[in-house]
UniProtKB/TrEMBL annotation:
Protein name, per record: Molybdopterin molybdenumtransferase
Organism superkingdom: Bacteria
A GO CC annotation given for this chain: cytosol
Keyword Metal-binding: yes
Similarity remark: Belongs to the MoeA family.
Reaction(s) catalysed (UniProt annotation): adenylyl-molybdopterin + molybdate = Mo-molybdopterin + AMP + H(+)
């Protein structure tokens, strides 16, 4: 049995970043930048006023109490002009006339005289005005030619704001990873919605994986359900290969039962098995293989929490590697209740997270951790990850935590869970 770390290393080693494609920025939200973006402009792209007021040249003549003639007016959108004598009325965002170096806010002046059209003609400064006051200098946000976003960054609304300000209308993004899902099990009810037949269950792994993968930015090209025999599974694999997918995820039939045919079927298909069985709980019987033509196959055990662990801790790193993103930075919280994990296994526990009255993130494992239970998963905020060698964990120690789903941030509850007596 392989350790989680070695399994991930083996899984990611042969992966390369997927090719890029060009998109209009407006359609690229949630996509991953293929290359570093360099700024074609300085931001601000010209010195401009931070306040509505008067532009002037700071110095001995700009002391509090000094009086000045107002010549001209400069609004946002006006082209540059040369500084004249006196001061110039200026609006927030307007280009600073060349030769001026400060702006006094209108409320820090007194109007002494107005013109017949009501515009100010002569003003008095209420305070001393220093060089650079209320001026936003060209290039102080982004210098021209600077690397503004690294390849591998996800384009969120904040990146859209930055790239739009830089006038970047099209971006190279990594192609979405293409994924096929195959759910095995003759107990899975197929066909139009109907009451369950005897011994049958609804397929929950397929819809879960589809939703989780789409949320993580993958292109789910198919989700097939097959029974417990080899041929339909091989046919589904063949469809996935023909569709040119990057990753096949199957669920079920990888354990020790009479009908657990997936390991043999993959070998029959010519797949190279990278590992089978990982020292972890839940999800131990997980298998990874590489098909000769290229797609990677992750055969997850069918039990719902084994699927959730497979998606969060195996599929997520694979998708990140395919998109040129490094490993996730580890997050930590204070363990709120002691744990006694089985030595030698990495444990993934569903947990509630909240901030205590000192602002520390607390994590309590939910009471019911059996891998068939879906209800506690749907109520959980996050995973607690306990190391293979960590031994018993006392309440109060620091533990690793991870968001519940792929490519989402930590969810935090309003307070500690209410514990049933
Ligand atoms: N003798 C042993 N038996 C088992 C072992 C073992 O080491 N020795 N390991 C157990 C562990 S751990 C797991 S996990 C399961 C994994 O079994 P399989 O991958 O072969 O999965 P199945 O038997 O096909 O299904 C397990 C369970 O999940 C339900 N299931 C399957 N697919 C779906 C689906 N699409 N939606 C909802 N639920 C699904 C299925 O009905 C079973 O109840 O093996 C243990 N056994
Ligand atoms: O790994 Mo399994 O999900 O414990 O039953």
């Amino acid at each position: 049995m392989i350790s989680y770390r070695d399994a991930i290393e083996r899984l990611l080693a042969p992966l390369s970043v997927l090719p890029s494609e060009t998109y209009a920025l407006a359609d690229a939200t949630g996509r991953v930048l293929a290359d570093t973006v360099t700024s074609p402009l300085a931001l601000p792209s010209f010195d401009h006023a931070a306040m509505d007021g008067y532009a002037l040249k700071a110095g001995a003549s700009s002391r509090g109490g000094s009086e000045h003639h107002v010549h001209g007016s400069q609004a946002a959108g006006d082209s540059g002009q040369l500084a004249g004598a006196g001061v110039c009325e200026i609006m927030t965002g307007a280009r600073l006339p060349q030769g001026f170096d400060a702006v006094v806010a209108v409320e820090r002046t007194e109007i002494l005289q107005t013109r017949p059209d009501g515009t100010p003609q002569r003003i008095r400064l209420l305070d001393d005005i220093a060089h650079g006051r209320n001026v936003r200098r060209m290039g102080t946000d982004v210098p021209r030619g600077a690397n503004v976003q690294a390849g591998g960054a996800t384009i969120e609304p904040a990146q859209i704001m930055l790239l739009s300000a830089l006038g970047i209308a099209r971006v190279a993004v990594v192609r979405r990873p293409r994924v096929a899902i195959i759910c095995t099990g003759k107990e899975l009810q197929t066909g139009p919605p109907a009451p369950l037949s005897d011994g049958h269950i609804h397929n929950s792994n397929g819809p879960y994986l589809t939703a989780a993968l789409k949320r993580a930015g993958a292109d789910v090209v198919s989700c097939e359900t097959v029974d417990d025999t080899v041929h339909p599974y091989l046919e589904a694999l063949q469809h996935a290969v023909e569709a040119g997918v990057d990753l096949v995820i199957s669920t079920g039939a990888v354990s020790m039962g009479r009908y657990d045919f997936v390991p043999a079927a993959l070998r029959h298909f010519g797949a190279q098995v990278l590992f089978h069985k990982v020292a972890m709980r839940p999800g131990k019987p997980l298998l990874a293989a590489r098909l000769h033509a290229s797609p990677l196959v992750l055969a997850l055990p069918g039990t719902p929490m084994a699927v959730a662990v497979g998606a969060r801790f195996f599929v997520a790193p694979v998708l990140r590697a395919m998109c040129g993103q490094g490993s996730e930075p580890p997050l930590r919280a204070v363990l709120a209740s002691a744990q006694h994990p089985k030595p030698g296994l990495r444990h993934f526990l569903r947990a509630t997270l909240w901030l205590d009255d000192r602002g520390r993130l607390q994590a309590r494992a939910v009471d019911q951790q059996e891998p068939f239970r879906i209800q506690p998963f749907a109520n959980a905020d996050a995973w607690i990850v306990l190391d293979e060698q960590g031994g018993d964990c006392a309440a109060g120690m620091s533990v690793e935590v991870a968001s519940l789903e792929l490519a989402t941030s930590l969810r935090i509850s309003a307070g500690p869970p209410t514990i049933n007596p």
